[in-house]
Every structure is written in C-alpha cells, then in structure tokens.
Here is the input.
Amino acid sequence: MFGSRRKPVEGALSLAYGQGGGVRNMPWRKYAVIYKSVLLENLQYVANVALGFFTYFVFIYIYIRLWGYMYRSPEELIAGYTKEQMIWYVMMTEMLCFGANANVVAGEVARDIRGGNIAYLMNKPYHYTLYILARYTGEWSVRLPIYAAFAVLIGAVLVGPLPHFRWITLPVMALCAVLGITINAVFKLCISLFSFWIEDTTPFQWIYNKLILVVGIVFPVEIFPQTLQPLLKLTPIYTVCYGPAKLVVDFRLEKCVEILAAQAVYLAVGCGLMFLIYRKGVKRLYVNGG
Amino acid sequence: MLTAAKNQLRVCFLSIKYNIMREMVNKVTFLTNVAFMVLNDASILVQWFILFRLRDDVGGYSLREVLMLWGLVAASFGLSNLLFARVLSLPNLIINGKLDAFLVQPKNVLLGVLTSETRISAIGDFLYGVILVCVCRPGVGGFFLFLLFTITGAIAFTAFALLLGSLSFWFVRMDILQNQMLMGMINFGSYPDGIFQGAARVLLYVLIPVGMALWLPAHVMARFDGKMLLAVLGYVFLLSVAAVAVFYRGLRRYASGNLMEARL
Here is the structure.
C-alpha cells in the first residue's frame, strides 16, 4: 500500500524536471524544489543547530564586555551609537554570520571542482551555481530563525531592549538581511569558482572573511575615519553586514532605500561575475578533461 | 632509556618533516597558504587600531601589550598546529576506529598520533606571532620569555585539546565540544583579561586554560615575576599529565574498527 505512494519531494522533482514541460514554463520551479528538499532535510536536524550556540554566545559575551569597557558612561555616544545600539549591531551581524554561514557552501564548491564531482553536476538540468545557492538558502532558512531567536533572547537578558525599535519595519529588515546573505554567498561562490584555475582558494576565503569580520561585523562603518567611509560604502561589506544590522539598530527610511538600492546593484554585479567565472571555468574544465 | 627517548624524538621530527614535505609538493599552494595566513592574522590589527583611537587602554592593556598578547596567542596556536595538528581530529580517529594503524607501531602511540598531521597555514600563524612580537621590541630577555611561553602555550593548547578529544573514548559528539572549547580559548585569549570580571574571569582561569596559558604569560612578559613564571610552568605540566593520563585510560576502552587502510 505504502510502496505505491511517491514522496512529495520526489513527486515535485519529477514535475520540475520536465514532465509536461515544467522546466520550460517555470524555470525557477526546479530551484524551489531543491530549496524545499534541503529545507525538509535540515528540519530533521534542528537540534544540531543548538550545538553552535556556545561559540556564538562566547563572541557576544566578549563584545558585551568589550563595549562595556569602552563606554565610560551609559549616555556616551561612539560614532553616533549608544552602548546598547553598538552591542545590538554586533549581535545582528554575528547572527547573520553564524545563522547563514556560507563557508560550508564555499567549501562544497571548491571540493566539487577539485575532486571532479563538478563533471557530474554540470550535466544536470539546472545551472550549477543556482543549484548551490538554492541548497544554501534551504540550509540557512532553518538555521537563521533559530539564531535570531537566540540572539533576541541574549540581547533581552544581557543588554536590554533596543531603543526606538519598531516592529512594523521588520519585513523590510528581513528583506535586507536576505539580500545581504545572498550577496555574501554569491561573492564567496565567485572566490570558490577560482578553483578552476588554482588548486586551493581557501586563503582567498580567509582574507574575504577577515575583511567582512573586521570592517563589517565588529564595527559599523561610521566608526572608521571620515576619509575611509565613502570607500567602505563601495565594498560588499556595506550591503552584506552593515546594511541589515544598521536598519535593525537605527531604522531610517532614506537609509533603507539607499541600502536596498546598493544591494540590488551588488546582487546584479555579483551574479553577473558568478556566471561569467563559471562559464570561463567550465571551458577550462573541458580542456583539462575533468 | 636516553637512547629510546632520542629515537622517539627522531621519529617525531621525521614525521613532521615528511608532513611538511608532502605539503610542499605544490609550492605555490604552500606559499600562498603561509603568506595569506600572515595577512589574515594581520588584518585583525585594524580592530585594535580602531579601539585604541577611542581609548588609551583596553582592559588595562596598552597597544603594545595587546600586540604582545596577540603575538603570543598566534605563535602558540601556530606551533601547536604545526607539530600536533592531529589532536584536532582525535575524536574522529577514535570514533571511526582509525587508531589501529598507530597501535601497531613500535613507538609511543600518543606521540605517533599527535605528530601525524601538520597544518601548513599554522606556519603563517607562528611567523605572524614572531614578527608581531619582534615589532614590539621586547628585548633579548623578553624575546626568550616569549619563545618559552610560546612553547608552554602550544603544550597547553595541545593538552587541552587532547583532554577533550580523549573523552571520545567514553562519549559521542566530543568533536563538537572540543572544537567549541578550543575556539573559546582562542577567542577569549585574544582579548585583554581586564575586560572580564567576576565569575567569568575565574572560569577562564580554571575551566578553560586561557588565563594560565596566555594571560599570565603576557603579564610576565610585560613585568617579570618569577612566581608567576613558575605557576605557568607548573600549570602546563599538570594539565599535560592529566591529558596524557586521560588518553591512556581511554585507550584501554578502545575497540578496533577492523579498518583496513594504508598510511602513506
């Protein structure tokens, strides 16, 4: 009785992969199916997410103590931020970093290329890079909300409520966070795709990660010297970490529009680069014979 | 006895040498890993320059003292990963029954396991630590103290990792605990102890060996104190003895995985 029933995901996959011309009519549907299957898979291991809380808590605790030391009085402003805003800023950027960790995806792509698995994946009826992005989105869709809840809990207990926070702005913040996460993943994918040319791209990932950490995660852009700020706003850091966290701690409509516009431009440029590098790299793979 | 110890040391040295030679087969990757790790570590300096623009001290440390602490953390972590990187994958060896290959060797099991892997990026960490401390001009005595504390720090880091990793003989998922506690040790150790107060500070001196392995040596390097130096040496010795004892105690419980594999 049960043997004749197809699982919902399998059924959806077969529909998306071409029964009745599904792919041609709705090219994004197959990625939605990949997303759904990874999401369902990750929902089975929700408890594993909690294992990463300790490291997240350590980071946040260090920054609470550090900023507690740096602020001489509760009323003091540093770069226009109160102590609570500064700590919440770090909590939000760290939450995005832990909840949507793109290192796994970057490592997977580099391994696929180095190990030759790409030769099998590139023949499938999807674009490899979009397949990876769909998988990644399915992974963080489970992790990020759990980290967000944990961050809010820690913040409420150890820091106190965020001043001037308006719940009505939450959907825009969420959109900004999703765009930031995707831009980060696209850039990390671009770096990993260089594995077509060089054996190990890990050192380049270190530098990118450290730049994001030091310039975007730990400090808001305003804390850097005035002369550097316009330059920093042109980097992915502005759209990946600063933008989403800034809107959470200090929401302003004009800032929101500016960040969303910058994200749209970065996403378009990033995706263009990603497709270009992949196309060039795949040709090289053909020459090398896989 | 002395000859046996000498032979054992020679085997360890050769093991590490061949690990490095294996990684040097691709010279470009090798050099890129080392150079970029130095750059990667150096980028954190931006954080301290920003913080010291805001205040003259952070947790009672001057910029020079923070850089010395950073140098010590990087060099200790680097040396540990250069010589004993396998300690980080010890839980995996135990759980998957991969210790068999080491048990049949006519040399010390623990040293054989620990020296069987080298992380090349650790050379970058170690070099960065040494360069940073040299930039701080600690003087000849200060530099020798730094080298001594780099060795004790590396031993403490390895012993702590070994202690946690050896718990895999009894419990599962100890790799996660080991990883998180070691990351905690590095993260806490990278910041001045003055910003931590109360119970947290006590825990960091007792539960996670950050205080005794990194902060106290940094204090001795800043202002020499013979008693503190002895305390650090004594603590590292006791931690190492405890870690080795737990490993061999656990090894009695080890069951072979009947895994056939070749170690090249």
